[in-house]
Specification:
Strand content: 35-45%
Helix content: under 10%
Strand order of the largest sheet: 29-33-32-31-30
Protein name: IPT/TIG domain-containing protein
Keywords: Repeat, Signal
Number of strands: 36
CATH superfamily of the largest domain: TolB, C-terminal domain
Structural class: mainly beta
Number of domains: 2
CATH architecture of the largest domain: 6 Propeller
Pfam families: NHL (PF01436), TIG (PF01833)
Number of helices: 1
CATH topology of the largest domain: Neuraminidase
Length: about 425
C-alpha cells in the first residue's frame, strides 16, 4: 500500500509540474494558434524510453493551441494528447507501439516525423489471478473474494468486460462482474455448453450443448436469460462455435473436423456443411475462432492432430496452418518456431487479439502460445512447458494447470480459464 501511495504521489506531482510548465509557456506568449504558412517542427522529446502510460513531452514549434487538431504517433499507434501549446505537446505513451518508435506529429494537414532519435518502448508483462481460489474447488456465488469454481472451461468477455464462463463438471454458466464485485450463476443446462460465440458488439452470445441438440441465445437486454433458438440437426459433438463477418450465421466445429454453418433466421435443424473436407479426427476435441483482421477462421484440432487449421471466409479452403510437426504431421510435443514446424500438445482454447495474432491454450503442455499472423512464428508467452502448478508473476515463470478457455477484453488483456487451478487468470502484456 505504501508503494502504491508513492506511485500516485509521483504521478500527481509530475502532472502538476507538466501542467505548470505548459501554462508557463502559455504565459510567455507561445500558446498561439497553428499557422499553416509555417512548418511544424519537432526539436526534441523526453523521456527517451518508457512503458505504457509514461508521461511524454514533445518540444518544437507551430503546434498551435487546439489539442483536437493535433495527433501524435508512436510508429503506427496513436497516443492520447492531453494538452498543447505552440511549442510543446503533452501526451502519454500508448500500449505496445513497438520496441523502437519513430515519433510523428500531425497538426491539421501538416505532419512531421522526428528522425534524430527513437523512443525505446519497454514491455510490461505479468500473470495474475482474477477470481477463484487456487487449488480450492467449489461452485459458490458471491463476491470476487468469496466465489469458488469447480472446473472452468470456456470463457468469453462482454462489452462491459464481464466474464462469462461454462463449468465442465457442474455445467453451470456463470457471470463474473469485476465492476460489481460479484459472481452469479446464470443457467445450469442438463448438458454442458461448449464455446461461446459473441456478436461483434458483445451484447449477446450463442452456445450449443455438447451434442448439438439445442442452440441457446443469451442477450444482455434480456438479462442473459437463455433462449432456445435452434438446433444443429447433425449427429455428433460440437466443441467450438464462432460468428463471422455476417451476423446471420453461426459456425460450429464438429468433433470429426467438419465446420457447419447455421442460419440464425432458420436455425432449427438447418445446419449446412461449410468446410470442404473432413479431417480424420474421430472424437477429437477442438475449437474455432474468427479473425476480422484476416477475414478467415482458425480451427483447433486438439487431441488428434495437435494442430491449427485455417479456413477461408467462404469455406472453400481448409488447410494446415500450425503444429503437428509439418504439413502432414499429427505429432504432439513442444516446439516453438516456424508455424509449419511447431509442436503442440492438446491445444484447445483459441483467441485472436486486435492485431490479428492467434493465442492458443495448451491443455497438456500447460502453456499459452502465440502465433504471429504476419511472421507465422510460434512462441510461448506464458507458462512452462510440461510443468503444471500455480504461480503468478512473470509470464514465463508462471505456472498453469490445464488451461483451456481464452478470451480477450477490449484492451487486449487475455483471460484464461485455468481449469486445474479452479480459477480465472489474466495475462497482461502492455
Amino acid at each position: 500500500m505504501g508503494n502504491l501511495k508513492k506511485t500516485y504521489l509521483f504521478y500527481g506531482m509530475a502532472l502538476l509540474l507538466c501542467a505548470g510548465w505548459l501554462f508557463s509557456c502559455s504565459d510567455e506568449g507561445t500558446s498561439t494558434s497553428y499557422d499553416p504558412s509555417l512548418p511544424v517542427t519537432i526539436e526534441n522529446f523526453s523521456p527517451d524510453s518508457g512503458r505504457i502510460r509514461t508521461q511524454f513531452i514533445i518540444e518544437g514549434s507551430n503546434f498551435g493551441n487546439d489539442a483536437s487538431k493535433v495527433k501524435v504517433w508512436f510508429n503506427e499507434k496513436e497516443a492520447l494528447v492531453l494538452n498543447v501549446v505552440n511549442n510543446a505537446i503533452y501526451t502519454i505513451v500508448p500500449k505496445q507501439p513497438g520496441d523502437s518508435c519513430t515519433i510523428s506529429v500531425v497538426v491539421e494537414n501538416d505532419s512531421v516525423a522526428f528522425d534524430k532519435k527513437k523512443f525505446v518502448y519497454h514491455i510490461t508483462e505479468s500473470v495474475s489471478t482474477v477470481v477463484g481460489k487456487a487449488l480450492e474447488a467449489g461452485s459458490t456465488d458471491g463476491s470476487l473474494t468469496d466465489a469458488t469454481f469447480q472446473s472452468p472451461r470456456w470463457i468469453a468477455i462482454d462489452w462491459e468486460d464481464n466474464i462469462i464462463y461454462s463449468d465442465e463438471y457442474t455445467r453451470a454458466v456463470r457471470l463474473i462482474s469485476l465492476n460489481s464485485n460479484e459472481v452469479i450463476t446464470l443457467f445450469t443446462p442438463s448438458v454442458i455448453l461448449q464455446n461461446f460465440a459473441f456478436t461483434e458488439d458483445r451484447r449477446e452470445f450463442y452456445a450449443t450443448v455438447d451434442n448439438g441438440s439445442v442452440i441457446y441465445r443469451f442477450a444482455a437486454d434480456n438479462l442473459w436469460v437463455p433462449e432456445e433458438v435452434g438446433t444443429m440437426g447433425i449427429n455428433g459433438y460440437f466443441h467450438g462455435m464462432a460468428m463471422g463477418k455476417d451476423p446471420r450465421y453461426l459456425y460450429a466445429r464438429q468433433n470429426v473436423g467438419v465446420v457447419w454453418q447455421v442460419d440464425l433466421e432458420n436455425g432449427w435443424g438447418d445446419a449446412t456443411r461449410f468446410s470442404p473436407e473432413a479431417y480424420n479426427e474421430d472424437g477429437g476435441q477442438g475449437n474455432i475462432a474468427y479473425s476480422p483482421v484476416e477475414d478467415c477462421f482458425y480451427v483447433v484440432s486438439g487431441n488428434r492432430k495437435h494442430s491449427i487449421f485455417r479456413l477461408s471466409a467462404d469455406g472453400t479452403t481448409y488447410e494446415k496452418y500450425a503444429g503437428g510437426g509439418g504439413i502432414d504431421g499429427s505429432s504432439s510435443g513442444y516446439r516453438d518456431g516456424p508455424a509449419d514446424q511447431a509442436l503442440f500438445n492438446f491445444p484447445q482454447g483459441i483467441a485472436i487479439n486486435s492485431e490479428g495474432d492467434i493465442f492458443i491454450a495448451e491443455k497438456n503442455n500447460h502453456t499459452i502460445r502465440k502465433i504471429d499472423h504476419r511472421t507465422k512464428i510460434v512462441s510461448t508467452v506464458a507458462g512452462q512447458a510440461g510443468v503444471s502448478g500455480y504461480e503468478d508473476g512473470d509470464p514465463l515463470e508462471a505456472l498453469f494447470n490445464t488451461p483451456i478457455g481464452l478470451a480477450f477484453d477490449k484492451e487486449d488483456f487475455l483471460y484464461i480459464a485455468d481449469q486445474g487451478n479452479h480459477c480465472i487468470r489474466k495475462l497482461s502484456i502492455e
